[in-house]
Amino acid sequence: MTNTTKHLLGLEGMSAEELTRYLDTAESFKEISERPVKKVPALRGITVANLFFENSTRTRISFELAEKRLSADSVNFSASGSSVSKGETLRDTAENIEAMKVDMIVIRHGASGAPHFLASLLDGSVVNAGDGAHEHPTQGLLDMFTLRERWGGFAGRKVVIVGDIAHSRVARSNIYGLVTMGAEVVVCGPPTLMPPDIERLGVRVETNLRKAIEAADAVNVLRLQLERQKKGLFPSVDEYARVWGLNNEVLKNTKKECIVMHPGPMNRGVEIAHDVADGERSVILGQVTNGVAVRMAVLYLLRGGAALEAEESQQSTDAKSREGKQVA
Amino acid sequence: MLSLDNLIHRSYIIDNVTVVDPARNTLFPGHVVVSEGKIEGVERGRAKEASLPIYDGRGLHLAPGFVDIHVHLREPGHEYKETIATGTLAAVCGGFTSVACMPNTIPAIDDRSVVEFILTQAKIAGLAKVYPIAAATIGRKGEVLSEYHDLVDAGAVAVSDDGAPVGTADMARRVMEYTVPLGIPFVEHCEDMCASGDGVMHEGFHSTQLGLKGIPAHSEEVCLARDLIILGSVKGAKYHAAHMSTGGSVELIRRAKNDGLSVTAETAPHYLCLEDKDLVTYDTNKKINPPLRGAADREAMLEGIKDGTIDCIASDHAPHAANEKQVEFAAAPNGSVGLETMFPLIVTHLVQPGHLTLPQALALITHKPAACLGIPGGTLTRGAAADLVLFDPEERWTVRADDLHSKSKNSAFLGHGVTGRVKVTIVDGVNVMAAKVGV
Question: What interface predicted TM-score (ipTM) does this complex get?
Fold first, then answer.
């Protein structure tokens, strides 16, 4: 199974076929994590650098485990303990790391477009592990994987994404992927946290949570960044929790089978009630488990893509010069 | 006949050209007589008299040298981005014989000595004429008025805190009042800084798509509306709105002009040729303030140009070093260089599609902007300085960084195919391009 793209920058523009390939590949990788010896040699000899310019526990550990279970060598870099704090540019940091012959770079950055910037500069594969308010494609894929595991497919399914849509990369990646796969997507949240013209992405906006979740098959609850309140985008955490927090009372307005998701980390009692987070509708820990399988699939397929590209360029080099065996 | 590449005389004839005179809205085959650095006459047909040396302008159009009333020359303070020498070289390479430079230098142009310094540097460079726009307030901080009388005495032609608006309604009123006896315009950078917040592109569908913070159209319009309301009660004040970018602003200016207010306005080529959707690659060279707007704004701006609501086009030439632009989109400074692409963009996007005739289009970068600031230039009037440009209106070329003479190459138009190329630029009768570029 090969992939012809070199980077994973986002789910926007990705075809249903490509999305399905990621999800199918993840399915075959999920089983590896259930084994007593959780390791395959798929990426042996490949070096991956995890560049995290923003705090992250879940995503960073998930990528690291995915890399280790594929036998890749990985190094971690986080902005606080690096030269970035001394004022080095992103470009210099990335080029220095690549100069040490790193094959893949996983980047989490607060600036939208930072992975695209690196992809334009570097030879290696770039995986977007979350850029600003733009995309978080592996989160989108793992959410879709979790849904597909339950449903088998997306047609006729309704997913509600509730929270701070304006600042959410998780929302965007989910929207791109789910709309492409044929699901109905409704976004819900305060008007002050709703980005302009979001409808043009193929979603419906409903500010009333009770109405939004009617007949929903899944509710994906976004983390509320508490600093948004300080910027005056909503009056108080209490009011937010009362109007847009997901609790069992609100969930009475939807299907019995409707599941609840959260990308983490949760603010229990704010966007999600304690008993919902731990309740029987919750698939939140399952998402985390699936995250490792999805990231294994992404790394594996991108490496396949890069290998294919290298092979092609090797072939054309070989064709040009008949002499000379390459030094191993 | 002699070649313009070796223009050595002080008095001569440029023959065999198509004369474009925007102020008279005419275009005809003719010749121009230059005497001691001044225009002696512009006539139809070929030159007959042989008492003066005759230079051959075959195949070229001749127009008054272009006037750009909004450039950032960066000196003093940011000489690594641009100097007055490199900026005026870019100007003459783009056909501009006069430029007005903005006061967001370090120090700001809020003191006579800075005006004098700029004029001295411009004189040493000996390329385009430079007209400093003084800071409206000391340090562009919006707190204390600069000494307008002293600054004008030294050579400043307008006041502005460009790069930032004059922050409060009260200070905007004082600026307008204080300019009245001097007759100079207040050039406003219209922006409500709170509305812009930490936005980095136009707020709309594409900011949603790219996950970038938006700058709403009303950020510009609220400030413009505020100023126009104040202008209505300050008798005798002249107001010039810089780099207009939104359809709402065009409508506000249209109404203000109908109401008889003394208001003029400029837009920049990028608001006529590019849109927010062009940011999909996160190209930091297209990060500009005000930001590239939506399709409807661009169309409204074009309409405003055609009906005269928008008086002129200025480049907002804003050089930044390559390393400053090679960063994450949100971290990059705002601005694009523009002096060397403005004329071809106008030919390509206004003249070729038939929106304007060549004389109408060139009016937007000659006598009209000069009139906005009340500076000389932009005409072929007898006795005026022989500031002239000769160009090929049909040459097609692609904008490449290597072709730009500005110290910085941060053009929003790199890779764009354009039509129209400046060949010779003459200031006070001297071919400044030949002298400095070795054309």
Answer: 0.89
